[in-house]
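Dear support,

I submitted the protein below through the web form. The confirmation email said the job was done, but the results page showed an empty box. After a refresh the structure appeared. I'm attaching both so you can tell me whether what I see now is the final result or a partial one.
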Amino acid sequence: MTNHFIDYQHSDVWLCIGANPAENHPMAFRWITKGKEKGGKLIVADPRFTKSAAMADLYAPHRPGTDIPFLLGIMNYAIQNNLYHREYVVNYTNASYIVHPEFGFEDGLFSGFGDGGYDKASWAYTGEKDPTLEHPQCVFQLLKRHTARYDKRTVSQICGTPEDLYEEICKLYAGTGEPGKAGNIIYAMGITQHTYGSQNVRSIAMLQLLLGNIGIPGGGVNAQRGESNVQGSTDMCMLYHLLPGYNPMPNANTHPTWADYREKATPAAGYWVNRPKFVVSMLKAWYGEHATAENDFCYDYIPKIYGDHSHMAMFKAMAEGKVKGFFAWGQNPVVGGPAAIQSRKAMENLDWMVCIDLFEIETAAFWKAPDADPTKIGTEVFFLPTGCSYEKEGTVSNSGRWIQWRWKAIDPPGEAHSDLWIADRLFKAIRKGYQQGGVFPDPIVKMTWDYGDDHYDIVKVAVECNGFTVADGEPVLNFTKLADDGSTACGNWLFSGYYNDLNDPPCKRRDTVDTSGLGMYHNWSFCWPVNRRIIYNRCATRPNGQPWNPEKALFRWTGTEWIKNDVPDFNANVPPEETANNPFIMLPEGQGRFFASGMAEGPFPEHYEPIETPFKNIMSKQQHNPCAKLYADNFAPVGSEEYPYVCTTHRLIEHYQSGALTRNQPYLVELMPEMFVMISKTLAEKLHLKSYDWVVVSTPRGEIKAKLGVTPLIKPLMVHSKLTEVVCMPWHWGFQGLGRGAIANDLTPAAGDANTSIPEYKAFLCNIRKA
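What the results page shows now:
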């Protein structure tokens, strides 16, 4: 999130799209409620009439997989009606940049397409700007032409949102482009879990830039994470292509040496020019005295990626017999992964698997699945019981980037231990083995692992993450003190500052006094980076340093100094004119990007249909994302008669993720005991079905059996003049635990986003019949 939960109270309008915070993030929704009491308006766009929709001022039903037209249509409305924030757009974005004359767009493809990918040479800037925004090849004019195709009638046809309602939504949300207003877009997995999920998020960011809603109180691009530490896990590089703090993982082809990495992974401008300081300090934290300038700080010890190592690619390799061992640590892919039937089958090829969790979850017991034959499975399974969140100590990072220390309430039961205890013992055992020899033991044997002998010291772990000076071991103040000469060590530069005081670590602070007057609470926990609660906050004022909204002033220039209510994202020791052209400090341009060359499938978002869809793409001949990642071939054809209904998955307040924890809680199982499927009254009448019937839901991947719920919360959508039914399934159930039920993800496709490989859980085709 660019902002944080408490800041929601300052929004004039919230647009919840692909999220259901009233149910899935109820404590966050509390701050929306506070804002509504002050006159704020809530828009909810969702295929279902959710609990959040019940609280909305405007509810927009829309077809799963059509977020890009919905968002680009609002942009078009704002531009055509001159409702965009022009002063912000001219000064703080790349709208004035002129793009290469050969750049173009035709019939769903941008210039440079070939062999399933893009040559991006024509996507470059010329080096010129037009602050009038009139040049035909300036970014603003390109954007204007691109979004003009998404008029309200076209959007209504694609999304199934009534045209008059959609226009009302456009008018309300585009109104936040007025200087001093704040619009807040809240999203979750309903936005990201598509074959163009990254471009969905880009659309949100672009809309917020157009309306001047980034870097201001009550604004922002605000992802709501699915667990209390999903943010922290990605910060600490749980994704295969990243090192801690969002530094790219070295690639065997492009970064074989430290010199290659330093040259190719370090941009020429922007704050990422400091990447060598962050990576060298990380290597010093890992390899200590062994990491020297002479040996490139042990850069050669880091494994290099050489292809697609994402979730679906991993299970595909498992099915092909290429992956023989597997750790499932706090994850339950047998329930949570796509095409779960095929994933379970792939796991049968493993020699061994280690599952680390609270209970014997479905992944640990994959060989007990109803469709499995244990006599033919040779996989040796090890189960290591671990502690729950209140049975271990350490930090979690919430969606708003607040790193908060949690103290242990009780010890884990029986033989269960904390994850850190398991990791500590596991590494020490592995190192002992490598001390006897091996093909290349140095990366293990020479790794610094000095957190204690018999029992780990969690403070030592925290100080290493924070960073320290090598000479004396003292914690550094923050990442501005890191160096690339080996004099500092830091496990994660982003976290630097969260544990810089051993007597009073910022992440343990719990001061409820708010000195900002805006609910920033700078002495409650630590917010990366450097305790900054709203990032890109130079945008909170006009170029002259005066706040857009004086009543919610994050900063104000007095003529001689800055008055500050947050940690500035700019040099606050100089007058405003010296920082006005560089508010987006992480980017080489220093300005927000409407036009971005880093995306796989285009510099602008474009509507493509999901891999499985009832409809042809009316926007172009390009039916699907041309760069989407497909890991199977068992997809329904466009307009399939065998699978005529749109299907999507969702969550419930009574259960959590794959249900590993909540389906072992008797009270929660009593509240929500079994798997079910929801359909509209019209579809039930058509199929002669009623609530509580057992039904079979099928896709090309397989079929499941579940109870039926016929509900007015789901209504058919009029898409391209055709009544289109939507089937909705929660995904919390499996064949283990106290509450058992069919696995929704047995039906989802193994198709992924072109940039992140996230699976397309939220839009596919199915059929439904009485069991």
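Response: this is the final, complete result; the empty box was a page-load delay. The chain is about 25% helix and 15% strand.
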